[in-house]
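Running log. JK asked me to keep both predictions on one page so they can be read side by side. First protein, sequence followed by its tokens:
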Amino acid sequence: MSSKRYKKLPEKTLDLNAETIEKVLPNIKKNCTTKFDESVDLSFQINNKQKKSDINIRTVVNLPGGTGKKIKVAVVCEEAKTSEAKEAGADIVGGDDFVEKIKGGEINFEKLICTSSMMIKLSKLGKILGPKGLMPNPKLGSVTNDIKKAVSEAKSGQAEIRNDKDGNIGVSIGKKSFSDDQLIKNYNAILETLDKEKANNTLKGDLIKSAFITSTMGVSYKLKLMKNI
């Protein structure tokens, strides 16, 4: 049963023609009628011409406008790297002792970064970290010896882009409280990343069939992409 608030939102927005993000954003923000700062979210559908089983997109994008979220970052590293991690802003830093805590189920962080030499110890915790999406990955920049850069980027605003088994990609570009300029910059950064992933996957034709934008408790609108991806 829909709430009174939801019933006041526009109906059949998906019947409207696709528009650019610049034209749609005012409507998205207008529809944010809850008391909290709603997220502005994108949803992409992979082109039917692509075999979904052949698509494996998993990467991160540094959002120039930030995410509006405070991320608790943990680092597993050698003692020599401890100071570097702490100075970069890591919330939790540790070595073998920290690995044992994770093994025991003590997971009070949202992003885990580790040095290359410590990865062999964390790799044994795949059943614990994997299902939570916390296993460090070289492709995502979370297995690295440049701890300062990894922590700084995770703190300043990163979004993970990955497709599900049905060929959908969902990602947030910020909050309602963000300026249009911030949201548009984040949106463009995501499109650029998808374009690079298309090239890296050597796909046939376009990667994206359709794109939609909505807020946490709002309704969806079709997005017109300004270039084929």
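And the second, directly underneath as requested:
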Amino acid sequence: MKIDITSIDGASAGSIELDDAIFGLEPREDLIARMIRYQLAKRRAGTHAVKNRADIWRTGKKMYKQKGTGGARHGSARVPQFRGGGRAFGPQVRSHAHDLPKHVRALALRHALSAKARSGGIVVWDKAELAEAKTKALVASFAKSGLGNALIIDGQEPQANFCLAARNIPQIDILPVQGINVYDIVRREKLVLTRAALDALEARFK
């Protein structure tokens, strides 16, 4: 699959051949959905908790005598039936993460990349570098190239000036190539890859 290489301003800088084993698959929505569910479940804090009857401080004295009242038999004011009592079957602190095989996670990433390529949502830059960390200049460059909602993937270490200039622009995310993931690819309209990112991805999936 052949795709044009552009600069940050949208100027042409040649073309490159994308690997069909990574960008030319028939996208499977089920794999992509499984991976997104895995990611979102794993990042949940799981710190929700309620107090059950053992956590409530109240007297342990029997509320009233067992017989002769005509009412139900009760031995504790801590039970869930009473206001101020413990909650029955409420959430407790736990991890929401679940397992997903490593090869399925890798395959889901390739399918997400293929889906983005098929929809025309991939942009390839020669490099993502700026001489000065100026947000205004970067916004003007994005306007020229038509980028308003994008995930930008650079090499092992994105340039500091570029990250500083882009961090205050809404709907623009920047990640090193080792941080590329299915959820961020799907949630943004465009996926911008630098040459360094492409080389790293091809080496990763060889």
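Observation for JK regarding the second prediction: The two ends are 17 Å apart (CA to CA).
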